[in-house]
Design a protein that fits this description.
- The chain contains 14 helices and no strands.
- Helix 2 runs antiparallel to helix 8.
- It is mainly α.
- The radius of gyration is 20 Å and the shape is globular.
């Protein structure tokens, strides 16, 4: 809801492609900052403390924003409220995400050879939320307004904090000297198979980030559809990804990580190239669903490699670094949408689609040579 809801609020209230792109960038830039500190915080203080603190902080922030939106005589314009909320909510969301992913890494290590099954289940949980989140955001915004959407988000954040079971202290017993971005870089440089996969997905995410940033503008402004229609695109994509994750889990059991990853990469690259040529709402729904199905398979491969290869004592720090690298394109995409004319967005998508195809091909060609992926 945070990823897709905030840009939808901005485009609904301002009808401005520039402000929508700026809001997207404002939401993602603090997320990148969060990854430089959240991994080491989890390594030092444990999953439970960081997760609960982030969830409660997010709930308080969105409740304050909802109150301001429901009080138009407060003197704070609605656009200022939601755009100020974007960086705060982005930072806190990623802190809670790193805590949850660290717990998932521990579960995968416990599962041993069944790590990809654990990661498939965890990813299915994420994608189920992605299936509901964009659609719920669009519907709440369409029929209840921004205040109702933000109040719902606050309730979900508080529920997450309450439902988290008791966790022991710092999961890996990490100290200050062994955690942080520097430790993550050392670890990633020592794991060439993981480094090449992250590099390929970094290029791929450039295309996906541009699509995410531009879609509210394309659907609402260019195609004249509603906010709910814009949310429906990503909900349909999450449903396709959910199916792909289930298929990938069984396919990895039979054929292994590398063939499944290479196939998923080919599907994702072909779909993005087709999206760049599409000009209808139905075409966007179908092709983005296929694209995210390919991304779902790639994510299972990435998460399985991470759980196998990253040492437990620096898992949080290295996980933060890999996610930081993969998310760098998102604020850049928001700024790009803010500065280029809407008529040129299609050309920009075509360029990033070609980059994605080349990047994924290079990464998986190198991975095949390394042959260090677990069977």
């Amino acid at each position: 809801m945070t990823t897709y809801g905030i840009p939808l609020i901005v485009v609904a209230t301002t009808r401005s492609a520039t402000l929508t792109g700026v809001a997207f960038a404002l939401e993602w830039l603090p997320r990148l900052v969060a990854f430089t500190v959240s991994g080491s915080l989890v390594d030092r203080h444990g999953v439970a403390r960081i997760f609960r603190t982030a969830c409660v902080g997010r709930a308080l922030a969105v409740l304050l924003a909802a109150l301001l939106l429901m009080a138009p005589d407060s003197g704070v314009p609605a656009a200022v409220t939601v755009m100020a909320l974007a960086p705060v909510i982005g930072f806190l969301t990623e802190c809670s995400y790193i805590a949850a992913e660290t717990a998932g890494g521990e579960a995968s290590r416990t599962a041993g050879a069944g790590a990809h099954r654990v990661q498939s289940v965890l990813l299915a949980i994420d994608q189920t939320a992605m299936l509901a989140g964009p659609l719920v955001s669009g519907l709440l915004l369409e029929y209840g307004g921004p205040a109702l959407m933000l109040s719902t988000l606050a309730g979900l954040s508080l529920l997450a904090a309450v439902l988290l079971p008791h966790q022991p202290g710092p999961p890996n017993g990490s100290s200050t000297s062994t955690s942080g971005v520097r430790a993550g870089w050392r670890t990633l440089r020592g794991l060439p198979s993981l480094a090449w996969l992250v590099g390929g997905l970094l290029v791929s995410n450039t295309a996906i980030a541009l699509l995410q940033a531009a879609m509210p503008v394309i659907v609402v402004t260019e195609l004249g559809r509603s906010s709910a229609d814009a949310g429906l695109i990503w909900s349909a994509a999450a449903f396709a990804s959910l199916l792909a994750i289930a298929v990938a889990r069984r396919a990895i059991d039979r054929w292994g990580l590398w063939p499944v990853g290479a196939t998923a990469a080919a599907v994702a690259a072909a779909a993005t190239l087709a999206v760049a040529q599409s000009d209808t709402y139905r075409g966007y729904v179908l092709l983005i669903a296929v694209l995210m199905a390919g991304e779902g398979g790639l994510t299972v491969v990435l998460r399985t490699l991470r759980s196998h290869l990253i040492p437990p004592e620096v898992f949080g720090s290295t996980l933060s670094l890999t996610i930081l690298l993969l998310l760098v394109p998102f604020p850049a995409a928001g700024l790009l949408v803010a500065v280029i004319p809407p008529a040129q967005i299609g050309h920009a998508i075509a360029v990033t689609a070609l980059m994605q195809a080349l990047g994924l091909f290079t990464a998986f060609a190198r991975l095949r040579t390394l042959r260090t992926a677990p069977a």
